[in-house]
Amino acid sequence: MDAAISHEDLLARLGRLAHKAVPLYGLSPRSTATLINLSENATYRIDDPDSGNKTILRVHRVGYHSYAAINSELQWMAALRRDAGMETPEAIPARDGKVIQTLVSPELRDPRHAVMSKFMSGREPPEDELLAPFERLGEVSARMHEHAKHWPLPAGFTRHTWDYETSLGSRPIWGRWQDGMGMTTTRETVLARMSDVIRRRLERYGKPRERFGLTHADIRLANLLIEGTRTKVIDFDDCGFSWYLYDLGTALSFIEHRADVPELIASWVKGYRKVAPLAPDDEAELMTFVMLRRLLLVAWIGSHAETDLAKSLGEPYTEGSCHLAERYLSKFG
Questions:
Q1: I want to staple 169 with a disulfide (CB 3.0 to 4.6 A). Which of 24, 100, 127, 165 is the partner?
Q2: Residue 38 covered by a domain
Q3: For residue 327, what are the contacts with CB-CB under 8 A and spacing of at least 6?
Q4: What's the CA gap between 149 and 24, in Å, rounded?
Q5: pLDDT tens digit string along 197-236?
Q6: How many Å apart are CA 102 and CA 59, to the nearest integer?
Q7: pTM surpassing 0.90?
Q8: Which structural domain range is residue 21 located in?
């Protein structure tokens, strides 16, 4: 049913589905559900006027993650809180004791998985003051990577793998970058040259355990909450197996064009080295991971054209990617 309806109608139906979930958690029926983010999923802030409490409800999109994959995400976030002292979203069990609910609506063709989490206070770092936050980002990323390297995966653990083939190659999770907005023959030629260089360099870099493992895979500024000296990490929806340095690429998502990117990378590296070593061979590929992510986002924008973020970026993001590709190829191609 929902495949044929408009985007606006789908959002209205998802909003009603979110309201329908409120009683499952014993919240006031007068609670409100406010959409705060729409990307892969629809994320709502639930305000309970009776208790004054706020919580976060994520309604998962159909077909992106299985029940087992969502459970795996929750397991890693819990392990990071327990083992590494990190502040991550904490799931709230519903009245039946289950943290993952399956919501059904006659308005929607497919059931939707949903998870309620405790509300986390803090603010996203402002884009005009990024050097200090990027140092924090590097430090937090290294802490997650060090945890991942030593954490025994629970039985049944399953998450996406973000390697070349599933990002830019033959099995792209977010769709083909060639279908990005405003793609032309000229632009595709430039980006194809860069994609080929990225592939060859990643093949040489390899996937040994010290370089490839469980990552956040979307640890950009929008997924950080700063509160005083505390740095909280949210939105693990894309967490999966990739090169650890891919997390640097994700940190620079949508701001790869900024003139201060070299300074931001240096700040990230400084923070990272407070926790874990970074070898010269790793540093030599930092821009490869930045451009891997950039081209992956061209694909994401093309396959998520209905979202506000994709609409705001659109064709200029593809065009800008070509300029960055030329610069990358002049140094690495």
A1: 165
A2: yes
A3: none
A4: 37
A5: 999 999 999 999 999 999 999 999 889 999 988 999 999 9
A6: 9
A7: yes
A8: 7-118
78 and 184 in a single domain? The answer is: no
CA 189 to chain centre: 28
Rounded alpha-carbon distances, angstroms, from residue 203 to 35, 68, 160, 164: 41, 30, 19, 9
User: The CATH number of the domain where 311 resides is what?
Assistant: 3.90.1200.10
Strand bridging mode 42-47 / 54-59: antiparallel
Residue 123 lies in a domain: no
3-state secondary structure at position 121: coil
Nearby residues of 57 by Cβ (< 8 Å), 6 or more positions away: 18, 21, 33, 43, 44, 45, 46, 114, 115, 116, 117
Same domain as 163, residue 45: no
Q: Is 162 left (phi over 0), alpha (psi -120 to 50) or beta?
A: beta
Strand stretches in 158-306, DSSP E: 212-215, 224-227, 230-233, 240-243
Rounded distance between C-alpha atoms, residue 270 and residue 180, angstroms: 34
* Average pLDDT rounded to a whole number, residues 72-97: 97
| Residue 201 · residue 281 · CB < 8 Å | no
How much is the mean pLDDT over the chain? 95
Q: Where are the beta strands (DSSP E) in the chain?
A: 32-38, 42-47, 54-59, 100-103, 112-118, 212-215, 224-227, 230-233, 240-243
- The SS3 of residue 240 is strand
Tokens of 151: 């954490």
> What CA–CA distances, in Å, run from 292 to 171, 195, 209, 312?
15, 8, 20, 21
- Structure-token match 């989490």, residue found: 117
Assess contact for 126 and 20: CB atoms under 8 A: no
Domain count, the chain: 2
Q: Please indicate, yes or no, if residue 324 is contained in any of the structural domains.
A: yes
Residues 76 and 221 reside in one and the same domain: no
The answer as to whether 12 is a domain residue is: yes
